[in-house]
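HUMAN: You are asked to prepare a plain-text protein record giving the amino acid sequence and the backbone structure tokens, both parts labelled.

ASSISTANT:
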Amino acid sequence: MDGTWRPFSVPAVLKGDEGALQFTVSATVTDQTAQAVASSTEVTIHPASGYAGIKPAEYLGEAGKESRIDLVTVDTEGKVIPNRQVTVKVYERTWVTTKEQTTEGARRYRSEPVDKLVETLNTTTDGKGEGSVRHTPKSSGTLRLVAEVTDSQGRTARSAAYLWVWGGGTASWRVTNDDTIQLIADKESYSVGDTAEILVPAPFSDAIGLVTVERGKVISRGTQTFPTNNERLSIPITEGSVPNVFVTVVLYRRPTIADPIPRYKVGYVRLPVSTKTRELTVTIQPDRQQAKPGDKVKYDLRVTDSNGKGVKAELSVAVVDKAVLSLTEERGVNGMRAFWFERGLGVRTSSSLSVSINRSNDVISEPRLGGKGGGGFDEEQVRKDFRNTAFWEAQVVTKEDGTATVEVPMPDNLTTWRMQVRAVSGDTMVGEGTNELVSTKPLLLRPALPRFLRVGDKTTIRLLVRNATEKETDVKVSLDVEGIDVSGDTGRSGKVKAGASTLFEWPATVSAEGTAKLTFRASAGGGLSDAMAQELPVALDVTPETTATGGIVLSEPMYEAVFLPKWAILKNGSLEVSVQPSLTGSMGGELAEFRRWPEEVVEGTVKIASRVIATIGVRRADKSAGGNVETLDSSVKDDLASLISRQNPDGGWSWCWPWRCDSDPEVTAVVLVALGEARTEGFSIDGTTLGGANSWVSGYLNRLTDVAHPADVNLKAHLLYAMAAAGQGELFLPQMRAMVEQYREKLASFGRAYLLLGMAAAGQAKQDSHMSQLLNDLATKVIPSANGNHWEDDKYPGTTHTNTRATAAVLDALVRVDRGHPLIEETVRWLMVARGAAAWTTHVERAQAVMALSEFAVATGELAGDYSYSARVNDRELFSGRFKPGDGRETDSKTVPLTDLGAGKVSIVGLMKDIASPGRMYYTMNLRYVTPAQGVEAVNRGIAVTHEYSTLESPGTRIDRAKLGTVIRVRVTVMAPSDLKYVVVEDLLPAGFEPIDTSLKIVDPKLKAQLEAERAKLNRPEGIDYWAPWFRWYYSPWEQSQMHDDRVTLSATRLPKGVHEYVYYVRATSVGDYFVAPAHAEESFFPEVFGRSDSGRFVIEP
């Protein structure tokens, strides 16, 4: 294309009486560099070649008085059609209202319109396409006005409007089944000084009305009588009415003999008021019509009010590349919309005849002023200063006469620069203005380069030379390059036609990391020339490697060996060493999550019980570290009193106190655990409370069940543990043993943990055969990973159980039954990760976790640690310090550059603490480095990731080459063997690809729709906790996806166990043979949990 419009046609035929239709037409233009730009527009298919616009001069007419009806004839492009005959048909609309009975037995009004033709008017528009007809209504009511115009092919187009008439007796209005009416204004908008005429179409006569003018508050009010059902109001429009007001009418009609029921109706109408008196006009005048790079362009600015008088104002001035602005919709704040947007009604109206309410009026804030500053730029000789924004200043103040001047040095972009000036005066008058200035040269260069390169790439450097003159010219082109290798002569020559571009190419290879610097020069006859420089980043063809370890320093120092392979690239990695005195830290901060919120009318029973459990856990941990627990004791006593008061007469507890729902087994279990833990700490629990609970639980456990609805063995285990915790362990121990014998295989992990806790509370030791079996079962079900141990169970609909709660229950059981169990410390670690990633989503889950971690802290005594420590690498001290009691959240760490360690040899890291002092010291070491990625194979160390390329036409066929300009489908597949936290996936792109951001306006709507449809197919609601099937979009665990020049990054706070796919599109934009780096996935805080795909190559052909 040569910059001119190229027409094309699409068949479009309307069928029969089919009305106007809209087509969406999109076009994508791809230039010689394979860059594509799309645009779309809406095209209306019309029933005829012309229309007659119709509008009453005023929407309100008066019976017996002539009303003017204005007409205009236009074609489908909105251009005037002169001297066209128009027929106007006037229909009188009446409403036939009846009462009908619904299927539920209620009676409701039904109103049906009946239109009667009362007059047909004919006229011919004048040379301006304008005309009018006149009609005198005989009575009040609604008139439907229909204008008809017929084109030369006999096709008729119709337009309609309405005229509402007042006066002249009782009008026929539509009757609705609510207490509202719609007020009718005589105009669509008003100006200050106008008087608005408003019709009140009431369903009854002889009423009294309250008339108010409102906006955020009642501005004015008054009462008047409404003798007919079609009265008119006159409302003056003042300066205070800007930008809009509402008129509300409340009608009340007293009982009559015919209708002994009092009636009322409420109606309102919005009156938009012109903001012209608040608008500023901003005029921008540059000192030239066209510029070139390096010019200093002077812009004269002037701000005037609606009368043309200069106004002192504060301006924000931006000069931005129009190409950038074309990518998305305008995001800047429109001054008129910001300060003079149409306000909401903000007043609520009701009547005691329906419901007595006293609701506060909404507060409508007044506009505020503000402003900030900025700016700055450089300029260069050879074109290399390429910027999106040429100028930005947020606080340019005009003179008293509204004038100001700014100077803008033009960057080296050859583009259209758009200046936008926004103005605000001291009294909040606002406005804006724009101006476009082209910066160009008669001979210009446009490189077509990849966004980046990698070592080992073979690419083609391409340059477009455009001749903007009217004559063909001979051009000489040269290339100077650093950082990459160009084979052969770097000089080129050729002819460039007038108004056209010619492409020049150089093959190149990449052999070293760094920055490629390219300088292009072109010259032609008549002194035409251009030169520009551009830089490209060149990355290594590497892939990251990560490993980690950790441990505990107790009675002697710990030493870890670190070995880096000889091929490790040392400058791109590090070793992080960190130590901390406690795995759990302080649990007291979690109690804030149980606080009562102001909007809670009544706290839930489960929340109170969970708070008791968590508080008891924190109390034990604080007490073990010598802390003060008086405040906690007071909270526990209050909550215990509340729980006891909520016990149902049958002895159980329900969800919905005080409405006395049936007692619920899970709620009862949580409450009994809370009472039992408090009782263990010495709090007094009334025997009557426990006796009633005993009776209810016994009845529930022994109730009859059938095969179709068997008892939940895990819920039974929870109840048995709850009764044991409440001091009834010996009584229920036989049932616990029986459950292990009969239902052991059916128990979930949390069910086994509850039975362990229950038997431990009943005084049994870990040597007990039943407890040993349960411990062995839990050991076989554990899911180990680099971020710790956890347990996962199947979903149990209708319960509050989660994997986090199950893991917390297991930890609690292990600590209480076997404090030396080898799974404990890694389970603590996993729970702390879950605390950060998901923030412990429910009160029950949080209480279970706090109790388990507090039990661990008490058992280890880690919160009372008081010792000095140090860390060393190869006899060189990294850091040292001292941990004191209460430092549970403290961490000390240091990052060591790999150049300090060296490749191909072993380094020793020593971690020491004062052995004679109490406490434990935990340490972690994370080693990150990169290795050459050419020919590497896929790796799965806790997470697997693959990517594959295909065409849009054949998504199931993998490809490794494509033609220049091809849109390529990329599918990234991530497999999580278990629930993972804080996962980041980086899919590195070959250098010849550019990702397609479908949020941009320049992307073809068809392509957007196709990608959305593809992603919708990835729906996997099965097993997804938070999937919402009514939501228009698809479920995706990826909370954020980011597109960069060289990669697409996906982020997920929680990645559920399973296979997850993500699809996006790229375009092949640079010819060459490119290295495909492995895709990489990892847990951010546990980088040793990672995976990568294999590497490869991709060829883009001309």
In short: Confidence is low (pLDDT under 50) at residues 350-380, 1021-1034. The chain is about 20% helix and 40% strand.
